[in-house]
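WARN no homologs supplied; continuing
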Amino acid sequence: MIHPIRPFYSLLIRVNPDNPADPADFKCDLCEGDVPAGENGGTKYTFKIRKGVKFHDGTPLTSADIKATFDKIIFPPQGVPSSRKAFFKMVGSVEAPDDYTIVFNLDFPSGSFIPALATPFNFVYSKKDLDAHGYEWHKKNINGTGPFKFVEHIPGQHVAGERYAGYHFEGQPYLDGFKAISAPKMAVRLNAIRADQASIEFRGFPPKARDDLVNALGDKITVQESDWNCVLMATANTKNKPFDDVRVRQALTLAVDRYSASKYLSNIAIVKTVGGIVFPGHPLAANQAEMEQLVGYSKDIEASRAKARQLLKDAGVARRL
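OK structure emitted
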């Protein structure tokens, strides 16, 4: 839901829209000036909030809204889940000393703090709405400060928005409105692009479908390609035998030929680059030499599988689980 809902909301900071491929280039959205550098050895970040910003219901934005938003994410009340809480383990407290200043106090310096702030899921909500309606209200109601105001949602069909005249970036948005079409079937998405009923497709097409569109539309279509952080995860239950033995778990990962899988899957899917936990191409991502030091990431699959069989033997597990 990030793509159809994001236009209704703003963030404190965001990825630079003019340079989205750079994982370290961020710009202020609801703050003023440049993204601040850390103070006190990287344990304090002070943001000045834009004045004159209003929610779509006319309520002025203040630092209290920013604080309420991040308190919800970082320090949720008992019983309220927060999937992004772990992103902010370094944050000890959030303060709003005045209406247009927000301060994040970190327990320890962390290079991941600023990127975590720029995560596009960190919609800034109205404190008034949170106080009056709680957290569930936002599942069916939208009140943000983003470039578009909510118009309608027809389940299974589309989400629509119209231009917000009071948006805090002068001259934007450039469109009078937008419609996000819900189309789980690839054929529907392909036809929408081919017939010019849709301007962009976010999830990606397999290579053949991409090539068919390019052949059909020529210079009317632009293709953007990059590495995707794709994860298809099977997690062993370490409380059950034989997976309580680390040797068995290592044998499983050693048996997977990631490089051959990437080579052949890239012909039919968006999977392309073998990567680790950090997004491929990111400054903090492991290079190839570092990757090959991880269990299961060697390019010598025969040696890896021989080691896997030995580990299973050492663990007293039959060759075939």
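Residues 183-225 form one domain.
OK
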